[in-house]
Amino acid sequence: MISFxxxxxxxxxxxxxxxxxxxxxxxxxxYFDPGASQLAKENVKMEKIFxxxxxxxxxxxxxVWTDNLADHLRLTDDDQRVHIFHHASFLYVxxxxxxxxxxxxxxxxxxxxxxxxxxxxxxxxxxxxxxxxDAGLDKRVIQCGQLKTDHRQTERFRFWNxxxxxxxxxxxxxxxxxxxxxxxxxxxxxQWYTFWVAVLVLVLTIFFGLVQSIExxxxxxxxxxxxx
Length: 228
Hints:
- By secondary structure, this protein is mainly alpha-helical.
- Strand 2 and strand 3 form a beta hairpin.
- Keywords: Membrane, Transmembrane, Transmembrane helix.
């Protein structure tokens, strides 16, 4: 579930760990150890609206399901795609294993990120996930539970802190680009109502303009018919 190889020619788009010396366990632990280089100087709250479903329909991101844990929550293609490690069953096994090569707490925290993005209590998210066509997805992704309000804080995450902060920033800064995104993005209520009132006024203007045009054409036709 972690890629250690690379291609001599070409680019796979995956993150690769280069293990050249030392034990595998210590190497993996060092790779995932966040150290003190976290981006978040202040705590960032992740609201209930911050879900994988809304990353797609509001922010316009595409989800890339990955088998490589090193790619989890990684943004690519100019922040248009987010990679999500979906093997929840593997994480549960690692969580209970005394021989796990993963750093202590990594499996548990990764499951928490899945609970954050795929809350099992959210009916709409469950429905959306069930409609995904990828047959290879681990269905336990949607069975990781949900996080309480005090746990939806970036300071609660040690391993995935930086990537969550960046992903939340991309989500917050995303602007609607389609009518569908305008309809679903209600984070700014004033902006949402202003936009749809403008759309309604435009539609009514076109409608009444069309009615007047038809009425005028009928009047001309009637006058022409009376003359003859």
